[in-house]
Amino acid sequence: MGMPETMRAVRIAEHGGPEVLEVTEVAVPTPQAGEVLVQVSAVALNNTDLWTREGAYGRPGDPEALSGWRGPVDFPRVQGADVAGRVVAVGGDVDQCLVGRRVVVDPAIYDAEGPDANPVGLMGSERDGGYAEYVTASAERVHDVTTSPLADDQLATLPTAYGTALGMIERGRLREGETVLVSGASGGVGLALVQIARARGARVLAVSSESKIDAVREAGAHDVVDRARNVAEQIRAAAPDGIDVALDVVAGDLLSEGLPLLREGGRWVIAGALGGYTVTFDVRRLYLHNAQVIGSAMHTPKHFDLLMNLARQGRSSPLSPRRSPWIRPLRRRTNSPAGRTWERSSCTHSASGVVPYRRLGERRWWHC
């Protein structure tokens, strides 16, 4: 059967609420030289998608500016950063052997070639993403996971949340036996941080709301701090010798109050500013104690390679996602798996093991 000429996609023509999402018929993209065409089997819904749609990222120096992940969005835009699917066509200079392979797409757009390149754009924000039946991607950014025991919907939860988490852990140089603090631990990135840090042999101290403490413990945290009480005091009680690494998606007061809790040579890694992006602290906490504050925007190609190796082995085991009801029009009458869209939780975990989705409203992070 030949390739269809058109496909259904969900795109936005302006910033706004869910009402700006439009299910429409568009041309199936043609892979250019160095690209592949992926038939989408699962795509996750992330905070990055919500905030890109809302224009809620802002910009340094102008936090209220309407912006996608890295600047103004070129409308109309097909959203969707996290894609799992199968390669169905390739462009010039791409190995035909990729056709038919099950893949996960690295959503990052990098500033250079090489394993340590920096992400400067995101699929679904700076280029069209996976809220469609087909999407093109660089052949270098599709990872063959044909042998992975994980289902497609599980694989689709990995790129943004687990990629961001692994990038933070790698940049923070977390080692076995160290004590690590994880803020926002009940969110998608936070749960991934807890799982990966625990798997690496760290002692995990997490910050969460009281209602989600059990879920965070289930993910692997040794101790959980209630964010509604005095956080710094609770951290001191749980880790009287201090913490080696902080993996932080909150910033704000937590950063200024938490820096004194770092041990000598400690590292504070930031990938979000849920608690506020303007922070005041005493710089002597850094240079007198060889401490570091490290910014972390998603992952590098090397970090993503590590994540995909875990996925192939089934060692990255995200909590089970559930299907999104609003995207069902993407599924054709043939009941093709293409266009099946899934939600990744950014908050809670139910007793059944299904992760319910909850919209986070106007909360903002920087490039997370």
UniProtKB/TrEMBL annotation:
<feature type="compositionally biased region" description="Low complexity">
    <location>
        <begin position="315"/>
        <end position="328"/>
    </location>
</feature>
<dbReference type="InterPro" id="IPR020843">
    <property type="entry name" value="ER"/>
</dbReference>
<dbReference type="InterPro" id="IPR013149">
    <property type="entry name" value="ADH-like_C"/>
</dbReference>
<dbReference type="GO" id="GO:0005737">
    <property type="term" value="C:cytoplasm"/>
</dbReference>
<keyword id="KW-0694">RNA-binding</keyword>
<dbReference type="InterPro" id="IPR002364">
    <property type="entry name" value="Quin_OxRdtase/zeta-crystal_CS"/>
</dbReference>
<feature type="region of interest" description="Disordered">
    <location>
        <begin position="315"/>
        <end position="344"/>
    </location>
</feature>
<feature type="domain" description="Enoyl reductase (ER)">
    <location>
        <begin position="16"/>
        <end position="335"/>
    </location>
</feature>
<dbReference type="InterPro" id="IPR013154">
    <property type="entry name" value="ADH-like_N"/>
</dbReference>
<comment type="subunit">
    <text>Homotetramer.</text>
</comment>
<dbReference type="Pfam" id="PF08240">
    <property type="entry name" value="ADH_N"/>
</dbReference>
<dbReference type="InterPro" id="IPR011032">
    <property type="entry name" value="GroES-like_sf"/>
</dbReference>
<dbReference type="GO" id="GO:0003723">
    <property type="term" value="F:RNA binding"/>
</dbReference>
<dbReference type="InterPro" id="IPR051603">
    <property type="entry name" value="Zinc-ADH_QOR/CCCR"/>
</dbReference>
<keyword id="KW-0007">Acetylation</keyword>
<keyword id="KW-0521">NADP</keyword>
<dbReference type="Pfam" id="PF00107">
    <property type="entry name" value="ADH_zinc_N"/>
</dbReference>
<keyword id="KW-0963">Cytoplasm</keyword>
<protein>
    <submittedName>
        <fullName>Alcohol dehydrogenase</fullName>
    </submittedName>
</protein>
<dbReference type="GO" id="GO:0008270">
    <property type="term" value="F:zinc ion binding"/>
</dbReference>
<dbReference type="InterPro" id="IPR036291">
    <property type="entry name" value="NAD(P)-bd_dom_sf"/>
</dbReference>
<dbReference type="GO" id="GO:0016491">
    <property type="term" value="F:oxidoreductase activity"/>
</dbReference>
